[in-house]
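// run 5 | inverse folding | seed 20
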């Protein structure tokens, strides 16, 4: 009995001694576990690259250091713009990639100075952070216009007209007249615009281009000319001689003689021209050549000493047949 009591007392003393050790181990494990799941501090770096062309676009690139790891999502970045008036607004957001980078392209910024910052949202393993402002100065975009044509392909027979609708759309506040012209026409083809000068004010302007083709034509048929000399010379001469025979006055006879000579000269000249036309008529017209041609449509706007020109093209497919084949076609596109 005494032995059992001593054993129980010894076991109790061991349990009381082990409690502080277990509590310490649990505390250290909890601290280590919590430390391993604490978000890692990050640094957000922002760079801005304005476009080198006239598009007005600006590309913002962000790098998160260190790159987010071991998370379902790497988080996102919001780009905040502070303009020259101190007003802040969002330009947009982008998701962060596995390498810690994100990119946003803004089509156009209002003219003036801008201070853009990137705000990283963070995730389970990476803490949120904000970049230093990146200064961007946006230039005012010059007014411009665009040209479109419908349809872009015409299939015509020789001698048939075709129409193309030309639309002029203003860009960046364009407000001016646009003059239209065409080039690259095949032989025996012409173009006309209605109107040829389009007033583009706020909304798109419209013009219609009409292509006028020519059908083939042969040489004039030869006519019989066996009685041509009789009508041109004998008849005027006979009438003049009759007038001379009935005239008794010398002055009248001279006048009749002059009329006869004049009639003979005029008749001979007219008969010679008619003879050449009927027997050696005009050169046959082969019409608009068959095949493909590229019609270039130019739109030009002049503002003081600055001239802006645009070019679009329409394909003309002629299905006529003629002796010239495809000679005279122009297939030079807009440069």
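// decoded
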């Amino acid at each position: 009995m005494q032995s059992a009591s001593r054993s129980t007392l010894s076991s109790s003393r061991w349990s009381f001694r082990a409690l502080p050790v277990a509590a310490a181990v649990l505390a250290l494990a909890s601290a280590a576990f919590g430390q391993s799941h604490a978000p890692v501090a990050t640094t957000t770096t922002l760079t801005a690259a304005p476009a080198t062309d006239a598009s007005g676009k600006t590309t913002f690139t962000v790098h998160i250091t260190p790159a987010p790891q071991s998370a379902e999502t790497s988080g996102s970045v919001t780009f905040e713009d502070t303009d020259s008036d101190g007003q802040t607004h969002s330009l947009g957001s982008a998701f962060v990639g596995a390498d810690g980078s994100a990119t946003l392209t803004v089509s156009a910024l209002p003219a003036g100075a801008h201070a853009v910052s990137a705000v990283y949202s963070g995730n389970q393993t990476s803490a949120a952070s904000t970049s230093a402002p990146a200064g961007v100065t946006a230039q005012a975009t010059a007014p411009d216009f665009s040209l479109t044509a419908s349809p872009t392909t015409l299939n015509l027979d020789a001698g048939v007209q075709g129409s193309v609708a030309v639309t002029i759309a203003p860009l960046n506040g364009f407000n001016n007249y646009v003059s239209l012209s065409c080039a690259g026409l095949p032989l025996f083809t012409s173009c006309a615009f209605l109107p040829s000068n389009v007033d583009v004010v706020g909304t798109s302007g419209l013009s219609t281009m009409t292509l006028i083709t020519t059908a083939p034509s042969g040489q004039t048929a030869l006519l019989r000319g066996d009685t041509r000399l009789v009508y041109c010379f004998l008849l005027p001469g006979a009438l003049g001689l009759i007038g001379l025979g009935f005239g008794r006055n010398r002055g009248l006879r001279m006048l009749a003689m002059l009329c006869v000579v004049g009639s003979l000269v005029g008749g001979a000249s007219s008969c010679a021209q008619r003879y050449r036309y009927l027997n050696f008529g005009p050169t046959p017209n082969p019409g608009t050549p068959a095949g493909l041609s590229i019609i270039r449509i130019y739109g030009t706007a002049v503002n003081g000493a600055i001239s802006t020109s645009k070019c679009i093209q329409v394909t003309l497919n002629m299905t006529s047949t003629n002796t010239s084949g495809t000679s005279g076609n122009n297939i030079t596109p807009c440069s």
